[in-house]
Amino acid sequence: MDILDLIENVxxxxxxxxxxxxxxxxxxxxxxxxGVHSNWRIWDPYPMFMSRARGSRIWDVDxxxxxxxxxxxxxxxxxxxxxxxxxxxxSFIANGTIYGxxxxxxxxxxxxxxxxxxxxxxxxxxxxGEATExxxxxxxxxxxxxxILKFEGHYHGSRDTLMVGLxxxxxxxxxxxxxxxxxxxxxxxxxxxxxxLVAQWNDEESVEKxxxxxxxxxAGIILEPIAMNMGFxxxxxxxxxxxxxxxxxxxxxxxxxxxxxSGKFYGGAEEYFGVKPDIKIVSKAIGGGFPFSxxxxxxxxxxxxxxxxxxxxxxxxxxxxSVYAAYITLTKILTRDAMTRASNLSEExxxxxxxxxxxxxxxxxxxxxxxxxxxxxxxxxxxxxNWRDFVKYVNLDAMYVYLTSMVSRGLIPQCIAxxxxxxxxxxxxxxxxxxxxEGMKHVVSLLKSSGVGEVFKIEEAF
Length: 462
Ligand code: PMP
Hints:
The protein is built from 17 helices and 14 strands. By secondary structure, it is an alpha/beta fold.
């Protein structure tokens, strides 16, 4: 059976198992484009609809149980319905949900965040996108400059500010060393997306080229310390130090978007890589599943926020429920010990994956750090360094088979998207890892039977 037949087979299996999801999807898509409220949830032939979740498990509307390693795209390192969080939040909610005023937990949480992630001052928001937007505004206000430099394939939220160079097709994206500022959405005015300059991840020369052209006009560099929206691509050794150095040289603000990494390592990316940015954004996992984000920064930058200075407002900012949930999450659940245990399970998963792929000669890029990692089936055995590598080498057909077939076996291995990664929560167990490893073996045998692994070389595009 070739890979296209295999795709049809696994799709059929999926459809047979998820009839109720299909019904709901068919109905919802009459009212909601693509039947989802976030484009990232679109899946072929349709996404699953869920009904409940607990611990490491989630159940769909057909009653199927899954071991969940997506964990709401990394928002749940606490795992589903953590008993401590449920108890605390349930009693809290009896006293209201939102006041339009700060509470004592605004103070407590600010201290916990600054202590744990190491900055001078903090402002709370709700989503990652809101927070990256504030960080960019601060960088521009602080420097009086217009341009922001980002990396191709990095994602910083669905706002106009940074929807540039997200997943461009290479034919439109320019030379890899000098990527174009390709808008990642319709409806973005050129005046806006042209303010975002794009460089290649892990490529110093590419960054230097942008700085040599626009240097004194670059307000800041924003990046994911580990690129986690094009698989799981860490910075090569010394790359973050290089970015720190070039920011200092040109007086630009260095911004770490830690929406994901703040839940992967106890102290976030700064602790893991030993490089200090000027601003960092934390979100997702630290809210324990409640909408929460924060911008942390150096005092002289953060003090620009205020009336007639840098605007930052929001009805739901610092809403007591999210703030309290984040406080409990960070102080009682995502402890160093608990995160170390989850990280060990993640490492075990990755190592098992590496063995299985090697034993079966299936080319794959497998990468992991902290509580996350991912398996990316490739056309040849290479290390992925940036978005161009991802496009060139990742075998999307094989990834489709891998992800969809795992789902049919009751496993959500790394969300249902080829560019995502797994999240191991503090509630996952060795048994969950063993289940996913068994699943991998099965899928690998399917892939082998369809000829995946017969290595072939792709010509260099440039
Ligand atoms: N930054 C990064 C690194 C992200 O991964 C995401 C979301 N996946 C965002 C920002 C946007 O966060 P939100 O969806 O909460 O706006």
